[in-house]
Amino acid sequence: MSFTRKLLIITAVISLLIGLLIYTTGFKVVHPFIWYMLLFFVFVTAFTFFITKKGYEEDEGNFQLYYFGSMAFRVIMCLAVVFLYVIFVDERHLQFAFNFFALYFIFTGFEIYCILTNLRPISKKQL
């Protein structure tokens, strides 16, 4: 299964869970900006995965450089979003942080899983 298809599936599952949480609890658990956060993480995850994949295809020896570069990009973008939220919005900081970092860990774990499953057949060839 391709990365794009997996990304769409995980996004759909998370969207259903968010919709269910909003339906049952309103915005007591979920921040009103959750849909923007979800969209942000979909784009950042897709971008960092394709940078890593392109780097691996062009130069297998420097895979770590591309991988850590994409992770640094992800961290900087996330810190910028949190910083801008704290500066410009005066309410629900803790709720925003919990929702944001829950999505951060879900999408980071998803990306690591996809990278490992793509590299596993290649590493088995070398043994």
Structure overview:
This protein has one domain. 85% of the residues lie in helices and 0% in strands. The protein has helices at 3-25, 34-58, 63-88, 93-126. The chain is flat and about 50 Å long.
Number of strands: 0
Q: State the separation between the terminal residues, measured CA to CA.
A: 25 Å
What low-confidence regions span 5 or more consecutive residues with pLDDT below 50?
Answer: none
Oligomer: single chain
- What percentage of residues falls in helices of 4 or more residues? over 70%
Largest sheet: none
- The DSSP helix count reads 4
Q: Which structural class do the helices and strands define?
A: mainly alpha
Order of helices and strands: HHHH
How much of the sequence lies in strands comes to under 5%
Q: On the 0-100 scale, what is the average pLDDT?
A: 88
Shape: flat
Keywords: Membrane, Transmembrane, Transmembrane helix
Transmembrane segments: 7-27, 33-52, 64-88, 94-116
Helix-strand layout with pairing:
Layout: H1 3-25, H2 34-58, H3 63-88, H4 93-126
Helix pairs in contact: 1-2, 2-3, 2-4, 3-4
Summarize the structure.
By secondary structure, the protein is mainly α. It has four helices and no strands. The chain crosses the membrane at residues 7-27, 33-52, 64-88, 94-116.
Which descriptors apply to this entry?
mainly alpha; 85% helix
